[in-house]
Amino acid sequence: MQEIQKGANVSLNALSEDVGAVVVSLGWTSASGAGDADVSVLLVDENGKIRSENDFYFYNNPAAPDGSVQLLGKTPTDSGDEDRISLDLTAVPQDVARIVVAASQYAGARFGDLDDLRVTVADRSGEPLVGFSIDDAGVETAFIFGELYRRGEEWKFRAVGQGYETGLAGLATDFGVVVEEADESEVAEPDAAAADAPAAEGADAEGVERAAGPAAEAGEAAGAAPGAPGAEGDAEAAQEAPDPASVSAPVPAPAPAAGPGVPAQTRGRSRTTRKKVTLPKVAKKSLAENDSWRPASLFPVPSLKSDREREVRATSVLLAVMSQVPELGRRLTAGFGAPAGRMQTFTEVSLPHGETPRRPDGVIRVERAGKLWTALVETKTNGNPLKAEQVQAYMDIAARRGYEAVITLSNDVALDGAPMVDVKTDGRRKHKVSLWHLSWAEVAHQTQMLIRHEGVANAAHAWLLQELLEYLRHENSGCHGFQNMGPSWVPVRKGIDDETLSAGDPRAVDVVESWERLVRQVCLRLGGELGQKALPVQRARRGSDPQARRIAAAERLCAEGLLAAELRIEGTSTVIAVTADLRTAKVRTSVDVPAPVGSYPLTTVKRLVRLLAEAPADLHVESLVEGANGPRGTLERLRPEPGDLLPRDGAQLTGFRLSLFKGTGTTRGNTESGFIRSVDEAVERFYHGVLTHLGAFETRPGRKV
Asked: CA-to-CA distance for 270 and 690, rounded, in angstroms?
């Protein structure tokens, strides 16, 4: 990968032979674990202005109808998060001269508070081509990381690194976007009574709506590409002064502070400007006479008995829905370098391989402009592991036949985007084949995001996705996601019980890796329910050794019997601490709530107890004082006497720690009492039972025990 400095540019075509599609990744780390930013992309013409409001892509408008731009969302990395953007350069209209890649922060946060700001560009196979690190960020609330621009028949990347103290609104205005400021009188500050009252379920905290101009309505036409082909612009021309009257587009106002765990959509973010179909969370009342009547299902599963049957059925069901619902097909393949185009899927295809033909479980083909992108699919269900020799054979076949990718699909969850099996690649071959992994949990997450939160083009597609989700969740489908802590789990847990587990035992590292996979899956499931990305927090600086981190966690596991993690919900400052104590067989979920500045201690504790009126009675509340822990008790005991939380020695009250405890099972994780299910349920119960009631209280990361 080539590293460049601020202001430098490089030809992508000179770095790779396959830059028809690229993935741009924006990354940063945060010492607090709560730092975050939102990515945005602008397509601008040779005059440096967007052509219409549809050329501005952000969290509320994440994909172009022609597939040229798609925001893929955040992906956990070893040291933090990475926000990825798929750009199909072959689909970018000819009158677009530059693609500007930027990010912005909200609620007064600054980029100087983040570390390791960096942008990288990778080709279709995932090979990093060019990187640029920003080391001079300060008070800026928006940043242009870089831009891709045309130069003749090739695309170049320029490292920009330009910051804005005026946020996303100031940045967008420079490119011809008219920011429609909300009337201050329409956005009232919550009064004390409103802050104390629990928020109504499903209600928007702000209710601020933004205009969706006529171009947004026009964008509903399926497959309509914005803009007509025109003459190529000079990518090197200087940008003209902004013309605020040139075009109007929906731009998010800076999001006000919100209570812990409140999804970003309810903090001043408008809904999508395009009309989409979503399904209600609560199903209509059943017309069945009794509970024994089962609704008819498009994808029946009760008859599935063998693993082979499950694999064949699951592959066929998923690939069929992907080919019929463009939003899902594009969502699952864009990050693998697939272009936006006509997709067809196949199963049980026979391909020559020596004396014995091979039959991959599936094949995905995407056609665009007469060119084909092809991926072979290898599927496993019911927790069965992928076989390295099988995947290796498919990689060899793909290389010989000029296919672009091999996709493995199983219950296991990959760490940091790494493949699940090791394969060898022949460096002498000019054609590169990329190996990607997809978990069934990720498929279920993306399906739920589309039908519950983001929407699809029509009701029939929404129904298909609902049937797919019901299939994936059925106990006989075998597509339940990560469900086995691995062969080291039982001996390690037994070693902790009888105190025979020694420091340096390699099996403890295996358990830590399984724990990380479990945390990733918990994030996927919680995010699907909320409509927000939930991500594991990594506080390490970029470039730190993940194996060293796992070894340190394994040493703690051997010494204390603890597995610990932190989760952050995108768009909020909430960090949930999760600690599994294998000695006591309990999972603790907690969050620290700071006390409001200038408030009387007794008023503060009474207000907190009122906000938690609907929280579980077994919630543990602990008062925090400077450098120590104060009084504590269950919510059931504190409700009649909130003053019991006040420090008895008159010490200054700094906040509260809220914790829920749940017992864990002793099995390998594939039954109701299993450890994996216990952790999943503990996080979900804590979020919905505690965080959603806190209202105006702000949270900070809970200290891990």
From this structure: 26
